[in-house]
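seq as requested:
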Amino acid sequence: MKGTYAIVETGGKQYKVAAGQSVDVDRLNIAEGKDIELPKVLLIVDDDDTIIGNPTIDGAKVIATCLSERKGKKIIVFRYKPKVRYRRKTGHRQIYTKLAIKEIVNPNKKTAKRTRKKKEAVGSES
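struct tokens:
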């Protein structure tokens, strides 16, 4: 994938995000239209440069705007015990927050651990 993207953690889950993309995450308690910073950035890839966190990248953050909140698909929870006539049927709808990713902020390049993808020379084996 060309361009810049990052792996961020929010709500105990990891998401691959790029600038201009919208993503659904577990509910964050913010108002619609407000900006939020996601400070737990685990990885940033910028074309040929890759910055890997240990476990996170110091000073890196992803800035996003809250677009809306919505409920997800209904999940049926059915508990059953045989021979004792025990049956319980309940449902659950998870609430999600839709975020629009505005920008990925790279940290100071001197403090971050940097790796470069190795380019193999074709036909240079001796």
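The CA atoms of residues 10 and 18 lie 15 Å apart.
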